Amino acid sequence: MIIEKSKLWLTGLLSGYLLLAGMPSYGLDRVRLATQLWPPYQTLDDGVMGGIALERVQCTFRRMQQPYELNMMRWDKAQLLVETGKMDGFFAGSKNSARARYATMSEAVISEDLSWYFNPGVNLNANDESSKYKARFGAKFNTSKWLFLKKNGYNVIKKPRDAEALLKMLWQGDIDVALEYELVFEHYMKQSGIPTDYFRRVPIRTQDLNVHFSKNFLKENPGFLDRFNQALRRCKQG
């Protein structure tokens, strides 16, 4: 029988454990993954973890009969703990070169539309080279999206800590254009009572969000990623 339990505490950041007890799969005692609070992908309500991406990861481990541990924390710390070998992986995140140095991605846990959100009255093409300097752009600080803006020369003037702060900046006119995932931004728009069609939305691309497993962890557990991906496919099929 599979048993789940959760434990939460505050230590300057929010952390959480969710364990799956059962017969270890292929000799693995427990897989330790880090994640962030990022509705609607990863949520925490009354001490219970949930969300679209988190529940799909849970489903995958259940299908594998693999014990696991999920830890919720700041996104920068989640990645650092994997890079330094203190966690086996983190999710859900997109592909970038910094992560690829120390981690290997699973297949997509979810795929989501990444879009520009324009303040009413802002009429420009975000892909026009001159627009990079005319408008004020924003994305969640120290994410792939924020780094993309900085690397490509966009006029980035703010460092919002999360998507909720990013939305507030766009709503108040502190920035002209926000770069965010559709489900995430619309979650906070609904929560704030802002009509979902208030901002002009221009889709950029569909972005895969994955589990990033430590290369050292995968080296020590050959075949694990293939088994994980096979189980993940079954979970996505329903």
Task: Determine the fraction of residues in helical runs and give it as a percent range.
Answer: 25-40%
Per DSSP, what share of the residues sits in E-state strands of 2 or more residues? 25-35%
CATH class of the largest domain: Alpha Beta
Q: What structural class do you assign from the helix and strand content?
A: alpha/beta
Number of domain modules: 2
Give me the CATH fold name of the largest domain: D-Maltodextrin-Binding Protein, domain 2
Q: Please provide the ordered H/E string of secondary-structure elements.
A: EEEEEHEHEHEHEHHEHEHH
Number of helices: 9
- Are there runs of 5+ residues with pLDDT below 50, and where? 1-25
List the strand order in the largest sheet. Answer: 6-3-7-11-8-10-9
Number of DSSP strands?
A: 11
Q: From the structure provided, what is the oligomeric state, counting identical versus distinct chains? A: single chain
Query: N-to-C terminal Cα separation, in Å?
Result: 22 Å
CATH architecture of the largest domain: 3-Layer(aba) Sandwich
Shape summary = elongated
Radius of gyration: 19 Å
CATH superfamily of the largest domain: Periplasmic binding protein-like II
Look at the structure and give the mean pLDDT: 89
Largest sheet: 7 strands, mixed
Note down, in words, how this protein is organized.
The model is unreliable at 1-25 (pLDDT under 50). The protein has 238 residues and is an alpha/beta fold. It has helices spanning 52-64, 75-83, 97-100, 131-134, 144-151, 163-172, 182-192, 215-220, 224-237, and strands at residues 3-10, 14-21, 31-35, 43-45, 48-50, 68-72, 89-93, 103-118, 137-138, 177-181, 200-214. It has 9 helices and 11 strands. Helix content is 33%, strand content 32%.
